[in-house]
Amino acid sequence: MSIILFFFALFSSTSIVTVQSFCVADLKAAQTPSGYLCKAPESVKVDDFVFSGLDPQNTTNGISISPAFVDQIPGLNGLGFAAARLDMDVGGVVPMHTHPHASEMLIIVHGTVTAGFISADNSVYIKRLRKGDVMVLPQGLLHFQMNSGKGKATVYLTFSSTNPSVQLVDVALFGNNLSSDLVTKTTLLDLYQVKKLKGVFGGSG
């Protein structure tokens, strides 16, 4: 009985601070390492928690990605997850890349996809996936996806971050103004090849 009275007194106390249930992103404010600042509660609407844009888009170089990140769903702010839709034409490839701040899960909903990642000890994990299969790609590791079937493929992606960053290996190496001599020395590629790749990816130096 004393325990019941204790909780009754606790919840009826005027000193209790109301805890906000969520922090909808104020997309007009600056983004911080921990996310966006919160919108004023009175300006929050149900549409802050809804997104209707996971339709297939026109493919570029054989793929299209439709994100459902915090910029599309402000209500995701601070919740630690996000999603996307990946559509791939036959032979379409998402090149080797990494998400420094998020793990990723692939859910195959149509077609056949070969996916894989490279661990920190250079072990390689590759799997040919079909409709209904799920694969996890651990945070920060190099990975790829490729349509290895005879028709189009559709994959839903989930991430352990509301705004997963991405770094494409080729763009990171050859799409910048880092000296070609330095890239040559640090990659063991020859200078001619480095300059050629910088030309392809828009780099200089």
UniProtKB/TrEMBL annotation:
Q: What SMART domains is this protein classified in?
A: Cupin_1 (SM00835)
Primary location group: secreted
- One matching Pfam family is Cupin_1
Q: Which UniProt keywords apply?
A: Apoplast, Disulfide bond, Glycoprotein, Manganese, Metal-binding, Secreted, Signal
Give the subcellular location.
Answer: Secreted, Extracellular space, Apoplast
What InterPro entries does the database record attribute to this sequence? Cupin_1, Germin, Germin_Mn-BS, RmlC-like_jellyroll, RmlC_Cupin_sf
Give the matching PROSITE patterns: GERMIN (PS00725)
Domain Cupin type-1, residue spans: 52-195
CDD domains assigned to the protein according to its UniProt record, in alphabetical order: cupin_OxOx
- Signal sequence bounds: 1-21
* Protein family membership: Belongs to the germin family.
Protein name (record)? Germin-like protein
